[in-house]
Amino acid sequence: MTTQSPFEVWVAIDFKARRPQVKDLPVRIVRFSGEALTSGIEQHVVDGVNVPVYNPAKTVTDCFKYRNKIGLDVAIGALKEGWQDNKFNMHDIWKYSRICRVQNVKQPYLESLSI
Q1: Where are the domains of the chain?
Q2: How far apart are CA 25 and CA 10, in angstroms?
Q3: Whole-prediction pTM value?
């Protein structure tokens, strides 16, 4: 959803889960709990294997949650591009913003989309 290519694969795991040992690619582990971990998951088939992936609205919300690590410009770009491509609606964005507690951070950017 952005023009930038990540140099790491971000993986969300439960706070109590053991850290996976991945040697073949660079991985950034983030820890979520409750609804922040379980909501917004879609199943995608990759090489015949079901892979859980967060939907676009949850992904954009996570970008805002980790804006200090990935850059606010990346988060805003993902929000704008996802909105222009109709990948989510305002209801979903607000829902995940509430779950991940980033409503106040995202509010000015969401208001600019709806003008």
Answers
A1: 9-113
A2: 11
A3: 0.88
